[in-house]
Design a protein that fits this description.
Distance between the termini: 52 Å
Radius of gyration: 28 Å
Shape: elongated
Oligomer: single chain
Structural class: alpha+beta
Order of helices and strands: HHHEEEEEEE
Helix content: 55-70%
Largest sheet: 4 strands, mixed
Number of helices: 3
C-alpha cells in the first residue's frame, strides 16, 4: 500500500470514527429525550464503540509500520549495489589514493535510477552557468541578485514545484588542482 492509499485509508478511517461518535451521541440523546434511558444498552454501545476504535487504531498503526518496512525495503533494493560496493570502494581509495574517479561513477547509477523512479528532478548540473533564482538556488554569499549569472557548484532537487533542496551556486568556478 503506497503512502497515498494509506493517507486516504486514514482519512476514511477518521471519518468513520467521527460518524460513529456522532451516531452514538445522537442515539444516546434520543434515548434520554424519550425517557427510555437504558443504562445497560448505553454501556454496551460505549464498549462496542471503544473496542471498534481500538481495533481501527491498531489496524492503522500496523499499516503505518508496514509502510515504513516497505519503504525501507524498496529503498534498500534500489541502492543495494551502491551500498554493497561502497565499503570496498572506500578501502580501495585508502589503498590507492590515485585511483581515477571515473572508475567509481558507475556505482552511482542505482542512486540516479532511484531519484528518477521517485520523480525527483535535479536543479542544474555541476559547473553550469545559470541566472540566479533565489527560489531555486542558494548562493555562497548573501549579496547575489536575481538574474545574475552564477555557477552551479552542487545540484539541488525538486519534486514538481516543491523544492527539496536548492542548488548551491557561486559567482566563480572552483579551480581544479593539478
Amino acid at each position: 500500500m503506497d503512502s497515498t492509499n494509506l493517507f486516504w485509508f486514514g482519512l476514511v478511517l477518521l471519518l468513520v470514527i467521527i460518524l460513529l461518535g456522532f451516531s452514538f451521541f445522537r442515539s444516546r440523546r434520543e434515548v434520554e429525550d424519550s425517557g427510555r434511558n437504558d443504562s445497560i444498552t448505553a454501556s454496551k454501545e460505549i464498549e462496542e464503540l471503544r473496542q471498534e476504535c481500538l481495533r481501527l487504531r491498531e489496524e492503522l498503526q500496523q499499516q503505518s509500520r508496514q509502510l515504513t518496512v516497505d519503504l525501507q525495503s524498496n529503498t534498500f533494493a534500489q541502492l543495494q549495489t551502491l551500498l554493497t560496493n561502497y565499503p570496498s570502494v572506500r578501502q580501495m581509495v585508502k589503498a590507492k589514493p590515485d585511483l581515477p574517479a571515473k572508475n567509481l561513477i558507475s556505482l552511482f547509477i542505482p542512486l540516479d535510477n532511484m531519484l528518477k523512479s521517485w520523480g525527483y528532478e535535479p536543479i542544474g548540473s555541476p559547473w553550469e552557468q545559470v541566472p540566479y533564482n533565489p527560489q531555486l538556488h542558494q548562493g555562497d554569499t548573501d549579496d547575489m541578485t536575481e538574474g545574475e549569472l552564477v555557477y552551479v557548484r552542487f545540484v539541488g532537487y525538486r519534486d514538481n514545484s516543491r523544492i527539496l533542496s536548492p542548488a548551491k551556486v557561486s559567482r566563480t568556478l572552483p579551480i581544479p588542482s593539478k
